[in-house]
Structures are given as structure tokens and as C-alpha cells.
Specification:
Distance between the termini: 11 Å
Mean pLDDT: 95
Strand content: 15-25%
Oligomer: single chain
Largest sheet: 9 strands, mixed
CATH topology of the largest domain: TIM Barrel
Radius of gyration: 21 Å
Length: about 450
């Protein structure tokens, strides 16, 4: 990427656009009663996906931006699992039927912190509350340092088909600086256990922009991980927001790479993965050509939600657990963010929704424009507007920004056809932001554009 573009855009803080509007714009105007009404109104043929949030870890990684807490005791985990089961029953009752499920994703925190028998009971309760079939994909996020042989077996028995393993960096200097020491051998053993349990879908998560990180250490980490033969990589840029995530204050900001170095790290990782035969999927994923995610992108069927890029086309996402976000055709809902408040809501016999957002036709239009840009690096504005039966002038406010981006060589614009320049793909969020009518009102600190 040209140095002048890096200098101009690296400092911008922009949403990751896993939703539109983004979560900072949710409000208490959407309540538990609203959510119950939306569930009851779902059409009879609705298929849904599930997200289950487990907000516990054994230790805190200093770079982490997730909603999680450290516990060394199992009692809070047992209690939380019971509340999750109660929420499953409440949501299923509000929907009035067992919704068919296409995807189930366990996120965290560390979902595998659940004891094996507790995890098995939770999966059984999910299957009782919702309708699974042989095609339902079940995915889980894993900290390789804590994956036991018993849990790997339990995951296989539960029908888990895909696992995402956090690696971030294999550089010992970087690991010490982020409070996460994890050897390649530990990661390799976790993958071996998962494959032995019949879990063939393996994702590896990497992060660039970490303290003391260099292009050379990024490439060395990628080389080591390639030897493990994962199906997919996810490569995220570290967002340093110590005012929002206080544990990030343990990271010395003076050791963080600048915008030019971050861009060089991202480009080096992307180039090495491409050379190894992985296709770039949107902003931050890479997959082998035969992987369903690569096939979905090739056919224009890739989607983006709160878990990132996905092959899941379900318009309804049910979020379960503290802070979990869901999406229904009517809008977004988010549960109480703290375990205490979430638990109190469910124990009182009501859904734990604390805020959300009711979508307007304009939101749906702009949301699709942003999603297609994030997934395809191109969008036909005229075609999307026709699908939504709205005139193009409804989004004309985006055109001056798009023209500036075109002048900078970031996009090509041919009337309503917007396409990213190949050398500027990392700046796709800056292009997507052109269609974000809420961004000027946002006071939230987002992650760097590069």
C-alpha cells in the first residue's frame, strides 16, 4: 500500500461492521418484551443460528477485547450453565416452537472452561429447545493451553465440527508482552486431540499490531502454523483501547507498532498465506479453495455477523448468555452485559434483553451495502437499491466520500459500481463507513483502520 495512504488512513478508528447499525447505537428502547414479541412473530419457516457466550477464562490475556472474567473456581461456571439452560427454555417458549438451527457457535471467554459433563448437558438442553439436524454446523472457540483430552472427546461426541484456536503470535517476546505464553507444541497437541475426536474443521486465529511484533515474527508465526494444516486462518489487527479495556493498560503502548508497521505486518501475513494456497476471504479471513467459506465467497453467498465471516445465511441469530447479541428480521437485541444482571433477569422468568435496535428500511439497505463491501470488496449500489425498492438517492450522501476514496486510489467507481483496488483491500472498512449514517454520532473508540 502507498505510504501516503497509510499515513492518511492508519489513524482512523472505524467499526469492524459485524452489524449495521453497530452496537454502540443500541438503546433500551428495545426491551425484553420487544424481543419476546419479535420471537413470537417469526414466520413459520424461519431457520436460525445460535451463539452461546461463555464469559469466563482461567487467566486474562492483556490484549483481549472480549467480554470475559477470570475465575479459578468451577462454582460460578456451574451456576452460569444452569442459567443458560433456563434462558434456552425461555427463548424457545417465546418463539412458540423449536426453531430449526443451521449453525451453533460457542464463543467467549473460553467455552471449553465448562466441565465436560456440564458441556454435554448444555448441548442436550440446546437440542431439546431447538431443532438440529445432520447438517447443523457446531463450532467452538478454544484456548489450546486449557484443552484436555477429555474435553476434546466430549466436543466430538457433542457433534462439534469446527474449532477455532487462538494462537495470536508464537514470538516469545510478544507472548510475554501480552500475558499469553503458548508454545507451538501446545497448539499442535490441541489440534491432534481435536482431529482424533473427529473434528476436522480447524481454524487458527492470529493477531498483528501487538507489542514488539515485527514483520519477521509475523512471518515466522505463519510458517509454523502452516505446518499444522488448518483449513482457515483469521488474522485480526490488535485494537489498543485501554480506556475501555482496563487490563490493556498492562501493555506498554510505546512498544506497539505504528500504522506503517501494522500495514506491513498485515500485508506480509496475507502474502505468505496466499503463497501457501489460501484465498483471502473479506477483510481478515483466509481459507483453502475447497473450504465452504471460499466457495461461499466465490458465489457471492458469504455473510458477516458478530462472529465475523460466515457461510450461515440464516436471517435470525439467537444470542444466549451474558452480553450476547442476536439479530431477528425486526432488529438487534443484546443481553445484560454482566453475569450478575443477566442471571437476575433469567431467574425472574424474563428474557435478559437490556437494549437493541429496531431496523428501518433505510438501515436494511445500508446494512446490505456494507455487508457486500465487507464480504466481496465490491458492491453494485443500484442493484442493492432495487432489491430494497428504494431510490439510489437515499444513499447519495455516501457518494462524496466514495469520490474522495476513488481519487486516493482506494476504490474504483463506475456510477453505482464500487470496487476496491487490489492494493487497498485492508482499507475496506473506510469504504464501508461511507454508507454509515450513524458514524458521525458515535462517541465509541473503534479499532484502527489498518
Amino acid at each position: 500500500m502507498r505510504p501516503d495512504l497509510i499515513a492518511r488512513y492508519a489513524g482512523e478508528r472505524l467499526p469492524r461492521y459485524t452489524s449495521y447499525p453497530t452496537a454502540p447505537h443500541f438503546s433500551p428502547a428495545v426491551s425484553a418484551d420487544t424481543y419476546a414479541g419479535w420471537l413470537a412473530a417469526l414466520p413459520a419457516d424461519t431457520a436460525a443460528s445460535l451463539y452461546v457466550h461463555v464469559p469466563f477464562c482461567r487467566r486474562m490475556c492483556w490484549y483481549c477485547g472480549c467480554n470475559t472474567a477470570v475465575t479459578m473456581r468451577d462454582e460460578p461456571i456451574f451456576a452460569y450453565a444452569e442459567i443458560l439452560s433456563a434462558e434456552i427454555a425461555l427463548v424457545s417458549a417465546a418463539a412458540g416452537r423449536r426453531l430449526p438451527i443451521t449453525h451453533l457457535h460457542f464463543g467467549g471467554g473460553t467455552p471449553t472452561i465448562l466441565p465436560t459433563d456440564t458441556f454435554a448437558r448444555l448441548v442436550s438442553d440446546l437440542r431439546a429447545g431447538f431443532a438440529f439436524d445432520d447438517d447443523t454446523e457446531i463450532a467452538i472457540e478454544i484456548d489450546p493451553r486449557t484443552l484436555t483430552p477429555a474435553m476434546a472427546t466430549a466436543l466430538g461426541e457433542a457433534g462439534v465440527s469446527r474449532a477455532s484456536l487462538g494462537v495470536q503470535s508464537l514470538d516469545p517476546v510478544v507472548q510475554k508482552a501480552i500475558g499469553r505464553v503458548q508454545t507451538l507444541a501446545v497448539t499442535a497437541e490441541a489440534i491432534r486431540r481435536l482431529r482424533q475426536a473427529g473434528i476436522d474443521g480447524i481454524n487458527i486465529d492470529l493477531v498483528y499490531g501487538l507489542p514488539h511484533q515485527t514483520v519477521e515474527s509475523c512471518i515466522a508465526t505463519v510458517e509454523a502454523c502452516l505446518a499444522l494444516n488448518p483449513d482457515r486462518f483469521a488474522v485480526f489487527g490488535y485494537a489498543h483501547v485501554p480506556s475501555f479495556k482496563k487490563h490493556q493498560r498492562k501493555i506498554d503502548a510505546s512498544t506497539l507498532p505504528d500504522g506503517a508497521e501494522r500495514a506491513a505486518e498485515a500485508e506480509a501475513i496475507s502474502d505468505r498465506l496466499a503463497a501457501a494456497g489460501y484465498r483471502r476471504i473479506g477483510l481478515d479471513h483466509y481459507a483453502l479453495p475447497a473450504d465452504p467459506m471460499a466457495i461461499a465467497q466465490e458465489s457471492g453467498a458469504l455473510h458477516r455477523n458478530f462472529q465475523g465471516y460466515t457461510t450461515d445465511a440464516a436471517a435470525t441469530l439467537i444470542g444466549l448468555g451474558a452480553s450476547a447479541i442476536g439479530r431477528l428480521p425486526q432488529g438487534y437485541v443484546q443481553n445484560e452485559p454482566t453475569v450478575k444482571a443477566y442471571t437476575a433477569a433469567i431467574r425472574s422468568g424474563r428474557l435478559a434483553t437490556c437494549k437493541g435496535f429496531a431496523l428501518t428500511p433505510q438501515d436494511r439497505l445500508r446494512g446490505e451495502l456494507i455487508e457486500r463491501l465487507m464480504c466481496d470488496f465490491r458492491v453494485d449500489v443500484d442493484a442493492v437499491c432495487r432489491r430494497h425498492r428504494q431510490p439510489v438517492d437515499q444513499v447519495a450522501d455516501a457518494f462524496p466520500a466514495l469520490d474522495r476514496l476513488a481519487a486516493d486510489g482506494i476504490v474504483r467507481r463506475d456510477g453505482g459500481l464500487i470496487e476496491m483496488q487490489p492494493e487497498a483491500l485492508t482499507l475496506v472498512r473506510a469504504v464501508a463507513a461511507s454508507f454509515d449514517s450513524y458514524l458521525p454520532q458515535s462517541t465509541r473508540t473503534h479499532s484502527p483502520a489498518l
